[in-house]
């Protein structure tokens, strides 16, 4: 008897996922970044591929292996991530799980290492990076049918996520509590809350990031079914 077929609710769908941190160079040896392992985003890309989707994963610098069955585009900075995301469209579903650096050093990194000269540290002027999720969600043409954002919060998780969904123009926010007690960043487990456009909240029990990924992918499949 044949083994039971895995459910493939995303058969033939095009899915784009961003994952990992971005690195914003200060000089050839230093950068600005944030704590993100890429585990949740990579797990979502892999789960989407297993569900039958054609998946492009745009990933910042991570130490994870490439997920099976996924086309991976590696980038370093937020601006490179935006360019790679635009090149990967169109997509039916776009999931923005990357922890993009909000700011980058204002002056282009020189090829020379900045040296201590005894007069104290040079001030580091910052410029704001493009908001990749908002840019894609607010597109009038070629907007993916389902745009999902993530929100990493340390406090007032639901309130912040509700404000974010309105500001970003996405269809769904997956919020997670990254306060120290949660140990989410870099950890194997995640506790997520799904916030819809109408503000409705669905809180899921803590689970392994792989399991959260499978459940999220099943949900995204339901949301695009029939479209
Ligand atoms: N995001 C993005 N590009 C950015 C910043 C964020 O695509 N430059 C995306 C993230 O991938 C995530 C969502 O926006 O899906 C929310 O990111 P978050 O950092 O929580 O939101 P911000 O608007 O940057 O707000 P803040 O960091 O001040 O909480
Ligand atoms: Ca941010």
UniProtKB/TrEMBL annotation:
<keyword id="KW-0288">FMN</keyword>
<feature type="region of interest" description="Phosphopantothenate--cysteine ligase">
    <location>
        <begin position="15"/>
        <end position="227"/>
    </location>
</feature>
<keyword id="KW-0479">Metal-binding</keyword>
<dbReference type="GO" id="GO:0004632">
    <property type="term" value="F:phosphopantothenate--cysteine ligase activity"/>
</dbReference>
<feature type="domain" description="DNA/pantothenate metabolism flavoprotein C-terminal">
    <location>
        <begin position="10"/>
        <end position="219"/>
    </location>
</feature>
<comment type="similarity">
    <text>In the N-terminal section; belongs to the HFCD (homo-oligomeric flavin containing Cys decarboxylase) superfamily.</text>
</comment>
<keyword id="KW-0511">Multifunctional enzyme</keyword>
<comment type="function">
    <text>Catalyzes two steps in the biosynthesis of coenzyme A. In the first step cysteine is conjugated to 4'-phosphopantothenate to form 4-phosphopantothenoylcysteine, in the latter compound is decarboxylated to form 4'-phosphopantotheine.</text>
</comment>
<feature type="binding site">
    <location>
        <position position="150"/>
    </location>
    <ligand>
        <name>CTP</name>
    </ligand>
</feature>
<comment type="function">
    <text>Catalyzes two sequential steps in the biosynthesis of coenzyme A. In the first step cysteine is conjugated to 4'-phosphopantothenate to form 4-phosphopantothenoylcysteine. In the second step the latter compound is decarboxylated to form 4'-phosphopantotheine.</text>
</comment>
<keyword id="KW-0285">Flavoprotein</keyword>
<keyword id="KW-0456">Lyase</keyword>
<dbReference type="GO" id="GO:0004633">
    <property type="term" value="F:phosphopantothenoylcysteine decarboxylase activity"/>
</dbReference>
<keyword id="KW-0210">Decarboxylase</keyword>
<comment type="similarity">
    <text>In the C-terminal section; belongs to the PPC synthetase family.</text>
</comment>
<keyword id="KW-0436">Ligase</keyword>
<protein>
    <recommendedName>
        <fullName>Coenzyme A biosynthesis bifunctional protein CoaBC</fullName>
        <ecNumber>4.1.1.36</ecNumber>
        <ecNumber>6.3.2.5</ecNumber>
    </recommendedName>
</protein>
<feature type="binding site">
    <location>
        <position position="113"/>
    </location>
    <ligand>
        <name>CTP</name>
    </ligand>
</feature>
<comment type="pathway">
    <text>Cofactor biosynthesis; coenzyme A biosynthesis; CoA from (R)-pantothenate: step 3/5.</text>
</comment>
<feature type="binding site">
    <location>
        <position position="164"/>
    </location>
    <ligand>
        <name>CTP</name>
    </ligand>
</feature>
<comment type="pathway">
    <text>Cofactor biosynthesis; coenzyme A biosynthesis; CoA from (R)-pantothenate: step 2/5.</text>
</comment>
<feature type="binding site">
    <location>
        <position position="102"/>
    </location>
    <ligand>
        <name>CTP</name>
    </ligand>
</feature>
<feature type="binding site">
    <location>
        <begin position="130"/>
        <end position="133"/>
    </location>
    <ligand>
        <name>CTP</name>
    </ligand>
</feature>
<keyword id="KW-0460">Magnesium</keyword>
<feature type="binding site">
    <location>
        <position position="168"/>
    </location>
    <ligand>
        <name>CTP</name>
    </ligand>
</feature>
């Amino acid at each position: 008897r044949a083994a039971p077929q895995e459910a493939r609710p995303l058969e033939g769908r095009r899915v784009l996922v961003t994952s990992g941190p971005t690195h914003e160079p200060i000089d050839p040896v230093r950068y600005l970044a944030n704590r993100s392992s890429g585990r949740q985003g990579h797990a979502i890309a892999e789960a989407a591929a297993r569900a039958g989707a054609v998946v492009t994963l745009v990933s910042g610098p991570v130490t994870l292996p490439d997920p099976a069955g996924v086309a991976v585009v590696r980038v370093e900075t937020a601006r490179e991530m935006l360019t790679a995301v635009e090149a990967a469209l169109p997509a039916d579903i776009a999931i923005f799980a990357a922890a993009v650096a909000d700011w980058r050093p204002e002056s282009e990194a020189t090829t020379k290492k900045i040296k201590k000269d005894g007069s104290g540290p040079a001030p580091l002027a910052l410029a704001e990076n493009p908001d990749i999720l908002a840019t894609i969600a607010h597109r009038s043409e070629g907007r993916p049918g389902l745009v999902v954002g993530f929100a990493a919060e340390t406090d007032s998780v639901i309130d912040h996520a509700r404000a974010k969904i309105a500001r970003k123009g996405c269809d769904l926010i997956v919020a997670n509590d990254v306060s120290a007690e949660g140990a989410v960043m870099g950890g194997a487990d995640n506790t997520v809350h799904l916030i819809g456009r109408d503000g409705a909240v669905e809180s899921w029990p803590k689970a392994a990031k792989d399991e959260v990924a499978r459940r999220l992918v099943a949900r995204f499949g339901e949301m695009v079914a029939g479209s």
